[in-house]
C-alpha cells in the first residue's frame, strides 16, 4: 500500500531547500525505475496525473503498472513574498508543482515572527486548510507531514510554526516532522534570536520530531571543499552546465552576500536535501530492514517535547569522480559519530545518547552492521536505562552517485548547547527590551517570556538526563514511550 508524505515548504529557506530536495528525489526515482512506470515507491512523493484536465486528474494506480504521464509533487509551497516560489515555478521543476497548491503574498513578513505567525497565519488559515484538505484527499494512506523552514526569518519561523499547529489541530494522528535551519550567530537579521526563540516554543509544542540544522555547521562542512578535504562535485550531473542549473539561485538564508557565495549555499542546500531523501528512503524503496517515519518517533523520542534529533551523514558529499574509493562500512560508522559530520555544532561523543537511529542505504550485510554497533556501544555513552537503544534500518537502494551511505539520527543531550547559544543571544536583546516594539504591535509581550521559559525547560531537562547516574531515574516520566527492540 502506498504510504504518502506531504511536504510544506515555507519561506525563502524552505522553498530553496525544497527545490534541491525535489531535484534529488526525481534523480533517485529515475535511477531506480527506468521503465517509466508509476510504481509504489514513486507514489510516496508524487501523483501521476493527466495534465490535460483542469485541475489535473489523478490516474489509477493500477497496482504499480501505470505508465507515467505527468508527475505532480505532494507539496504545498508557501511564502509571503512572490520571489522564491516564482523562481521555482519558472525553473526546470516548475511543472512538478500544482498551481492550486501555491500560497503567496507580496509584502513579506519583515523578518518578524509575530507578523508571520499572528497576522499571516489567521489571514490565510482558511486557504491553508483548503490546500491541506485537497492534498490529504489525494492520499490513500498518509503517513506524515514534512515541514521545511528557517528559524531566523519572519515567514519561515512565524507562518511555518503556525502551519505546524494547524496540522496538529486538523490531522492529530498524522506525524509531523520539521526540518528547521538555525541562523548563524553573525546573521544580519538582528531580530533573529527573537524569531528563533518564539519558533522553538511552537516546535516544542506541536512537532512530533524536529531535525535542527545550523548554518554554521553546514558552512564548516562546505569549507572542507575549499581545503581539498572533500569533493566539491555534486552527484548525478553530467556536466558543469547541468550542475549549475540546479545550484543556481539555491540558497538557505538571505543573511549573506548571495552573489559571492552562490556555490557554497547550493552545496549547503544539497546536504539538507540528502538528509531528507535518506530519511525517507525506506518508505519509498525496498530493503531488508525498512523503517517507517513513525518508527523514528517511537524509538528515538522517549519523552514528550524532547524530540530534537541530531543528524549526521557519511559520506556528507556525493561525488561524480569515479576514481574516488567508496567508504568502508567501519569508516562510515565512525564518521557519523564525529563532530565534523553533525548538521549542528555539537559533539555527541562528549554527551549522553538517549537513543540512536542508524539508517543504511545500499548492499550492506546486517551482520556487519551489528559488529559496528557492538563497537560503538563501547565508545559512546548511552543513557543507563537504554544501553541497547539503537534502531537500525536498511534500504537496498543507494543514493544517486554512491554505493552506500549512512544517516545517523540521535537523541543526544548535547542538543542543549544549541539552545544555550540561542538563549544567550536572545537574552542580550530581551534584557534591554531592544526591538520589542516591532513584536508587541502584533502579539502580547508575554509570549516572549513563555518562549524563554520553554528554552530554559529544554536546557534543564537535557542537563538532568546528562547528569543522571545509574541509580537515578530521569525526571520526565509522563507519556514515556517504550523503545522498540533493534529488529
From TrEMBL:
Residues 57-287 form the Tubulin/FtsZ GTPase domain. The keyword Nucleotide-binding applies. Residues 289-424 form the Tubulin/FtsZ 2-layer sandwich domain. One of its GO terms (cellular component) is microtubule. Pfam families: Tubulin, Tubulin_C. InterPro entries: Epsilon_tubulin, Tub_FtsZ_C, Tubulin, Tubulin/FtsZ_2-layer-sand-dom, Tubulin/FtsZ_GTPase_sf, Tubulin_C, Tubulin_CS, Tubulin_FtsZ_GTPase. One of its GO terms (molecular function) is GTP binding. It comes from the Eukaryota. Gene3D superfamilies: Helix hairpin bin, Tubulin/FtsZ, GTPase domain. Keywords: GTP-binding, Microtubule, Nucleotide-binding. GO terms for biological process: microtubule-based process. Belongs to the tubulin family. This is Tubulin/FtsZ GTPase domain-containing protein. It comes from Phytophthora sojae (strain P6497) (Soybean stem and root rot agent). The lineage of its organism: Eukaryota, Sar, Stramenopiles, Oomycota, Peronosporomycetes.
Amino acid at each position: 500500500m502506498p504510504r504518502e508524505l506531504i511536504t510544506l515548504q515555507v519561506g525563502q529557506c524552505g522553498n530553496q531547500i525544497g527545490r534541491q530536495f525535489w531535484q534529488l528525489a526525481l534523480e533517485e526515482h529515475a535511477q531506480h525505475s527506468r521503465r517509466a512506470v508509476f510504481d509504489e515507491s514513486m507514489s510516496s512523493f508524487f501523483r501521476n496525473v493527466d495534465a490535460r484536465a483542469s485541475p489535473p486528474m489523478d490516474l489509477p494506480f493500477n497496482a504499480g503498472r501505470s505508465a507515467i504521464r505527468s508527475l505532480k509533487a505532494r507539496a504545498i509551497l508557501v511564502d509571503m513574498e512572490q520571489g522564491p516560489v516564482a523562481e521555482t515555478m519558472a525553473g526546470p521543476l516548475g511543472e512538478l508543482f500544482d498551481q492550486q497548491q501555491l500560497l503567496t503574498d507580496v509584502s513579506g513578513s519583515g523578518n518578524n515572527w509575530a507578523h508571520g505567525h499572528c497576522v499571516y497565519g489567521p489571514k490565510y488559515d482558511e486557504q491553508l486548510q483548503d490546500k491541506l484538505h485537497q492534498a490529504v484527499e489525494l492520499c490513500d494512506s498518509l503517513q506524515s507531514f514534512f515541514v521545511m523552514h528557517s528559524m531566523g526569518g519572519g515567514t519561515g519561523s512565524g507562518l511555518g510554526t503556525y502551519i505546524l499547529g494547524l496540522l496538529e489541530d486538523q490531522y492529530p494522528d498524522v506525524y509531523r516532522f520539521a526540518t528547521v535551519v538555525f541562523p548563524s550567530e553573525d546573521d544580519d537579521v538582528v531580530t533573529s534570536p527573537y524569531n528563533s526563540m518564539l519558533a522553538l516554543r511552537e516546535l516544542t509544542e506541536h512537532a512530533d520530531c524536529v531535525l535542527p540544522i545550523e548554518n554554521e555547521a553546514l558552512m564548516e562542512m562546505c569549507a572542507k571543499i575549499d581545503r581539498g578535504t572533500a569533493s566539491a562535485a555534486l552527484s548525478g550531473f553530467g556536466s558543469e552546465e547541468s550542475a549549475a542549473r540546479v545550484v543556481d539561485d539555491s540558497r538557505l538564508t538571505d543573511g549573506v552576500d548571495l552573489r559571492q557565495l552562490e556555490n557554497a549555499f547550493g552545496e549547503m542546500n544539497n546536504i539538507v536535501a540528502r538528509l531528507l531523501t535518506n530519511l525517507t528512503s525506506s518508505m519509498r524503496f525496498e530493503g531488508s530492514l525498512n523503517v517507517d517515519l513513525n518508527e523514528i518517533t517511537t524509538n528515538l523520542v522517549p519523552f514528550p517535547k524532547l524530540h530534537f534529533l541530531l543528524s549526521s551523514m557519511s559520506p556528507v558529499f556525493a561525488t561524480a569522480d569515479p576514481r574516488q574509493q567508496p567508504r568502508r562500512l567501519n569508516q562510515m560508522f565512525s564518521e557519523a559519530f564525529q563532530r565534523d559530520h553533525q548538521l549542528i555544532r555539537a559533539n555527541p561523543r562528549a554527551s549522553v545518547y538517549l537513543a540512536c537511529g542508524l539508517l543504511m542505504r545500499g548492499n550492506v550485510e546486517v551482520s556487519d552492521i551489528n559488529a559496528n554497533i557492538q563497537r560503538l556501544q563501547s565508545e559512546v555513552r548511552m543513557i543507563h536505562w537504554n544501553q541497547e537503544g539503537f534502531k537500525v534500518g536498511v534500504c537496498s537502494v543507494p543514493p544517486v552517485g554512491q554505493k552506500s551511505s549512512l544517516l545517523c539520527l540521535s537523541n543526544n543531550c548535547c542538543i542543549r548547547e544549541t539552545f544555550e547559544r540561542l538563549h544567550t543571544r536572545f537574552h542580550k536583546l530581551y534584557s534591554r527590551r531592544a526591538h520589542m516594539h516591532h513584536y508587541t504591535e502584533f502579539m502580547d509581550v508575554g509570549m516572549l517570556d513563555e518562549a524563554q521559559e520553554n528554552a530554559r525547560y529544554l536546557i534543564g531537562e537535557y542537563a538532568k538526563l546528562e547528569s543522571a547516574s545509574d541509580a537515578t531515574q530521569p525526571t520526565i516520566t509522563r507519556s514515556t514511550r517504550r523503545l522498540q527492540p533493534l529488529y
